[in-house]
Every structure is written in C-alpha cells, then in structure tokens.
C-alpha cells in the first residue's frame, strides 16, 4: 500500500534527523536534483532509493500521485511536507480547534471576511495605514495565510486551518510551547 511506503519514508527521514520542517526541507532539497523547488517522478524515485525505501515502480508512482495533491505532475515542498510531517498530538489539535471556533464568529464552519470584521483590527496594518490597501484587502491578505494553496477561494475551513497549523506544529518540539503559543496568539 502506498500509505505504508509513505510512512516508511517518514521513518527513514526521521532516522536521518529530518524531524521538523528544517530537516524535511533539507531532505527535499537533496532530492530536488535540478533545483526547481519541485520533485518530478524521477527525482522522487531516486530520493526513495537514496533513503532506503525499496518499492516497486508502480508503488512509487502511487506514492507520488498521493503526494501530488494538485495533480501538476510534480511535488512541491508544501505537498511533500504535508505527507511526511509527523502527526499532531491530540492536545495540539484541541487548541487549534478552539482557535478556529474563536476565528469562526458566525459558527458556520467557514471563516470569511465577515467573521473578521470587528475581530481583526486592520487599522494597524502598515498597508492600510499608508492608504495602499483597503480594510477588505487587509482581511483578504490575512485569510490567504490559512487558505489552501490548491483552492484559493477567500474562505478558510477547519481543514485548511488545521493544515496550516500542522505545518507550524512540525517546527515546534514541545506540546507545552505550541499550546502556549496558540493561546497567546488567539487570546484563548
């Protein structure tokens, strides 16, 4: 199964010190032979071999397809990281869920510009202060941080919010520190 092979690649990366984003970034750069900031299938297959993950070509193709979320025929770093980062603890997930509930003022499961009005103060943003952006542009820019890179629709779902913070989580070793950071950032 391709998912098992992805898990094996994760374990091999961890054995070689690729615990967080920096380590996985290094792994990705090593596999990216042409420096294009994306992996084609040949680079991916060679990278599997270099990391000691022995799979048949069809299994490697399944893994590649699983990681190539946008169907572009290449794997970018975000796609690579999303599949290989370690899973989050339930304590981290709980605080992310709490933050989303606070973020989603209307309670409809989707954060939009309307949710931000009266909650996020755009007036202190440098581009708003300079007159370069309107309040709506500041809100859109803020939401874009959490919006899926594969579906930029100006709305943030719980899944997109969790995915964003999963990336942040991968670079923070301690549950206590991550939880404190989230509570402070979201005033929970």
Automatic annotation (TrEMBL):
SMART domains: EFh. Keywords: Calcium, Metal-binding, Repeat. One of its GO terms (cellular component) is organelle. InterPro entries: Ca-bind, EF-hand-dom_pair, EF_Hand_1_Ca_BS, EF_hand_dom. Residues 19-54, 55-90, 91-126 form the EF-hand domain. It holds the Pfam family EF-hand_7. Gene3D superfamilies: EF-hand (1.10.238.10). GO terms for molecular function: calcium ion binding. It comes from the Eukaryota. This is EF-hand domain-containing protein. The lineage of its organism: Eukaryota, Metazoa, Chordata, Craniata, Vertebrata.
């Amino acid at each position: 199964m391709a998912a098992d092979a992805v898990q094996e690649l994760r374990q091999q990366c961890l054995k070689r010190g690729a615990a967080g984003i920096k380590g996985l970034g290094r792994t990705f750069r090593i596999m990216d032979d042409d420096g294009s900031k994306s992996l084609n299938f040949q680079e991916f297959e060679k990278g599997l071999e270099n990391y000691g993950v022995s799979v048949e070509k069809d299994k490697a193709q399944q893994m590649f397809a699983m990681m190539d979320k946008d169907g572009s025929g290449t794997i970018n770093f975000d796609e690579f990281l999303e599949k290989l980062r370690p899973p989050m603890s339930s304590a981290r997930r709980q605080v992310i869920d709490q933050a989303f509930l606070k973020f989603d003022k209307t309670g409809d499961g989707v954060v939009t510009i309307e949710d931000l009005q009266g909650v996020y103060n755009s007036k202190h943003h440098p581009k708003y202060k300079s007159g370069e952006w309107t309040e709506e542009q500041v809100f859109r820019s803020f939401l874009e941080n959490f919006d899926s890179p594969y579906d930029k629709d100006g709305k943030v779902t719980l899944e997109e919010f969790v995915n964003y913070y999963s990336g942040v989580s991968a670079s923070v070793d301690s549950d206590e520190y991550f939880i404190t950071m989230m509570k402070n950032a979201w005033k929970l």
